[in-house]
Amino acid sequence: MTLTASPRTRRSPGLRSRRRRELLRNLAFLSPWLLGTGLFFLYPLATTAYLSFTRYDGFVSPTWNGLDNWRFVFRDYPFFWPAMRNTLWFVVVLVTLRIVAGLVLGQLVISVKRGNSLLRTVFYAPFLAPPVAGTLAFVFLLNPGTGPVNTILGHVGVSAPSWFNDPTWSKPALTLLALWGVGDLMVIFLASLLDVPQELYEAASLDGAGAVRRFLHVTLPHLRPILLFAVITGVIATMQYYTEPIVAGQVASGQIAGSGNQFEPGYPSGSTLTLPQLVYNLGFQRFDIGAACVIAMVLFVLSMIFAAFLMGRGSGFLTAED
Fold first, then answer.
1. First-residue to last-residue Cα distance in the chain
2. Where are the alpha helices (DSSP H) in the chain?
3. Distances from the Cα of 233 to the Cα of 33, 52, 94, 175, angstroms
4. Looking at the DSSP assignment, which residues form a beta bridge with residue 63?
5. How would you classify the pairing of strands 63-64 and 54-55?
6. DSSP state of 285
């Protein structure tokens, strides 16, 4: 009795060869993404995680010191927890108000029948201003002594705050600055609002739904993936909030950092101190790169937790019906 190979056995080498070619072809198409992700994300992330367990000043080779940097940051570094509270405050308040303002402005532009192109330009233009220039303008406008805002408030009998020079008002002043540049969200929401089918509004009106109910039951469900996108990107961007508070603190205090002049961030009284400012202060001003990497890892973990939580709550960008 002779044994012959089955057709399945005879085809298996050719099948394996074809699958190998398909795998190599797919890897070739993915190679730009794989190379970019490896060089600009995975390698820096792994290096940051490693340096967080070392003593490193940027000049001599890093030496392993275990959890010393982590204990120093969480237990002994006095600025970490105030910066954490300020960062979370900005994440909650600033992101929420920017989304609400962007949605309101988008709805306003749609409701205006004449001149809406001009309104779009006026609301979007501040977003194009460089962050440093916008911050300098706001510090001038809200100057407690000579700023036009406080001058106008004084003429109408309102007690004007000190804004960037007052720990109570410094974060609200930065929030006003962020709302001034809300044009990016306005454009995103405007495009999504224009995409809502008018038939749904007409059907809701025939059912007796008013403006509020139409917004809640027609507009918001359609905007759900856009809102989720805006929240996630807003949280990640706010976790990296650095330029505006550092520039506002320097200009309002009159201590412009330069050659031979080191500025301690967080003016006034640490009220505008954020975690990214600590990364820069520790890593590039005090050359404690190990501790700076600890705070960078904290920022990364917090961003991933926020993103995972929001994606879980939103069940992805599309609903089951989509």
1. 60
2. 7-37, 43-51, 68-71, 80-89, 95-111, 116-124, 131-141, 148-155, 170-180, 183-194, 198-206, 211-214, 220-239, 243-253, 275-280, 289-314
3. 21, 26, 13, 17
4. 55
5. antiparallel
6. I
Whole-angstrom distance, CA of residue 174 vs CA of residue 304:
25
Q: What is the pLDDT of residues 250-284, one digit of tens each?
A: 999 887 655 456 677 889 999 999 999 999 999 98
Residues in contact with 126: Cβ distance below 8 Å, sequence separation at least 6, in sequence order: 134, 180, 181, 182, 183
Query: 57 and 296 in contact (C-beta within 8 Å)?
Result: no
Q: Which two tokens stand for residue 88?
A: 């979370």
* Residues lower than pLDDT 50 in the chain: 1, 259, 316-322
As a three-state string, the secondary structure of 187-239 is HHHHHHHHCCCHHHHHHHHHCCCCHHHHHHHHHHHHHHHHHHHHHHHHHHHHH
3-state secondary structure of 288: coil
pTM over 0.90: no
The structure tokens 């600033």 sit at: 94
265 and 246 in contact (C-beta within 8 Å)? yes
| DSSP state at residue 114 | S
Alpha-carbon distances of 269 from 90, 251, 264, 278, 295, rounded to whole Å: 17, 15, 10, 15, 21
| Sequence-separated (6 or more) residues with CB below 8 Å from residue 289 | 51, 56, 57, 58, 62, 282, 283
User: Shortest CA distance to 176 belongs to which of 207, 134, 222, 208?
Assistant: 134
Q: Which residues pair with 54 in a beta bridge?
A: 64
At residue 119, what is the residue type? L
Using alpha carbons, select from 246, 315, 308 the residue that is nearest to residue 277: 246
Q: Which CA distances in Å does 297 have to 61, 115, 215, 289?
A: 21, 48, 40, 12
**How far is it, in rounded angstroms, from Cα 129 to Cα 149?**
20
Provide the token pair at 161.
């705050």
